[in-house]
């Protein structure tokens, strides 16, 4: 795929911003607009952009882990998030929350957040798997 | 606004079905994309529309205060959007592969599950 | 021993049978025979125990009144003794007959399972329990008939038996359900105790017809008789067990079981007498032109089954006594005869009587069994079946039903024919000269003559001293069938009376017919072979199978033509048609029509989305179309945003961007301009599409007008923070309340991605093996 220097330069900046924004969406999703789907899609867009700018090979390297593995990891995290409540005697995947104090700030974390992280990773894996595979097609 | 959207949805369905009736597989997939949007909009509209009142519980409160946009169809549609995307992506790859195998994007050339001579 | 253990012990023995045989070879068979023997002893102990009836019950499906329950009365005892007693003999016999067969373990697995199923069937008290065991007998007998599954004929016979009996089983299931409804209980004992409740119920005739179909298929009554001779493909121990003593009597058992509640009506008498009489006559006749020992026996079995059903139909006290007596007599001699046929086959290498002769010298014990069995088959004194036939004749003669002469004629014609069959079985192979069997015959091993010997001996002993069997065995069984109390007194000698005269005449006629059998065959065979080749039920069965295959092939060609556009058109038309139909039958749908208060930018959004859709539809260039689709997606996202759904708006926008990227990546590879259809086609498709669009518009207007239940939404609104600690209610629904749905969705996405990946990365290889 052809690409220009301007695209390459701006996309590097945008990719970083997109990724940070995706984490932000993921984190606040339980209380405000966002969540695993939106976050995962933003992160996917970042890698799609990177793929258009630098080609699939470079994008693959930057993802570090195999995109197909990412799908599995995401699904596994999402499924595992249901287990703690099971161990505590509730129905599978009943939400569990705890307030953890880190550096004088109270942080609200729970199994639904873990689930959302799983969704985030799975969505990212799904989209980039398809994008990479299509981008690698030759005539 | 529901009335207006009813016509928009009808128009989208007409466009989507028309595209899916074409022989060119590219149009069929475009038709699927339009139908996905039409259906999401249908579910969203069918539950009734509320302007500018997202279903967020305000800071300091524990209950959602009236009025609010119904969160249930929104949750359904959110799921549907992402699933629809997955299906669409698969359909795109499928027609691409079909084109590479048969050497044509004409769906009438793909009436059997077996490869004919010279196709792969 | 517990009832349940006795009834279900066969299954336990079946489970370990392959292991036993793997360890001990065919000696394992002798070991396994201990199980049916123990069951036999248990049933004996019940017969001489203090209680007349033994019962046990567990709740199975409480809500439907279904119990897993057994109740062993006189009829169940008679059957239980036959099943376990002959079962033990067959298990030993099979050890000799199938000695060295590598599949012997499997054989015992099926055989003992079948025994368990039969015991369960005959002991069941609940209608559903009965049906479950009934079906188990069909399944296990399918396995047994198809035991030599490497042969096409064996497989076909097994499938035929399964289709016929299981098809009848379905009818019976319907009948049993209706019976349960009519009697308002699932317990057979309660149904039988309820007097005329079922007979007076308006469902009586459907119940009777359905149960009769089930019984007729299982007990091979005309016109379902054809599967039984076919089932002779089974190894002989199976034929001896299933097709003489046990399974084919299951239909008779069913009718006998429901006789107290369903029997005695005109419909019952007519249906059973006619079906039974026809089968009796047909079976006796069809045996005439057969030369294979087993097939002759199969047809005479048909005749006997017909006799039993006919007697149930006549239904008088005497007839029921005769039914039970004849049932016992037949089980004894027919089991012995089948095993005799197997021994001949085993030692001489053929069952064709034309190739057999003078076997009595080489196989004296087998010959003795054959003679006793044949005399029983012909109804000669002093054998037990002679007594059975006497009662049968007596019952026929005193019959009050109008068709008395018809029944007598049936008996008078079929009895001599059975004498012919008896002669062909015993005289031709054992005493006449001629025939060159493939093997040099010698006496069968003890395992193969001991069992039939015992059964033949039983025929003689009970014939000479029927008192040995009447009080504890026959009387309670006959009473259970009749549902009332009476005495059974059997005697070999009844004095000079009409039944004796008829009996003597039929035997004399039979001997004459035997002497002129070749002439009889020459007379009948041309007609029979022509009829069987054109209209017989076997032809019907084959035609049915061919028809089903053709029908499904035709339907597949019509419905799965492979043209995508037609699938879409069919779906679209059906949608429009069904919605229109629903609207029409409901007398129209009230519509909401209100455009007041719509902001100008909302009009604009609507126009944007609609315009994008129309432009996509008419675009001739792929990339223009992709742009238009992108506009639709953005417009929808903005609509979400305006109407309180920021999460949707965001997700929709992101998906839209990615969709466009994917479209570009794919369309980049596709060739030149897109195909263009002819004008006429476009107009036609546009009309259909507009119809779909109009339907959907009306649907939305109708739905918006209707009241919606809101309690689920209100629950989420109230519980989102209180129970799930989240302020974004939509997100809380996704990751907490409906988390399993979301998890499922993620799995679907993953499957789609991996499917797409596989499509792109793994290519079909051509036969030479090089990748494309």
Question: In a few lines, what is going on in this structure?
Answer:
The complex is a heterotrimer of chains A (139), B (120) and C (772). With 139 residues, chain A is mainly α.
Written description of the protein model:
The complex is a heterotrimer of chains A (139), B (120) and C (772). By secondary structure, chain A is mainly α. Chain A has one domain. Helices cover 68% and strands 9% of the residues of chain A. Chain A has a two-stranded antiparallel ribbon. In chain A, a hairpin with a 2-residue loop joins β1 and β2 (105-110). In chain A, α4 packs antiparallel against α6. The radius of gyration of chain A is 17 Å and the shape is globular. Chain B has 120 residues and is an all-alpha fold. Chain B has one domain: Helix Hairpins. Helix content of chain B is 61%, strand content 0%. Chain B is built from three helices and no strands. Chain B is elongated, with a radius of gyration of 20 Å. The model of chain B has no long low-confidence stretch (mean pLDDT 85). By secondary structure, chain C is an all-alpha fold. Among the domains of chain C are: 266-515, no CATH class; 608-676, no CATH class; 713-772, no CATH class. In chain C, 74% of the residues lie in helices and 2% in strands. Chain C has 32 helices and two strands. A two-stranded antiparallel sheet of chain C has the order 1-2. In chain C, β1 and β2 (66-72) form a beta hairpin. Chain C is elongated. The model of chain C is unreliable at 766-772 (pLDDT under 50). At the A-B interface, α6 of A face α3 of B.
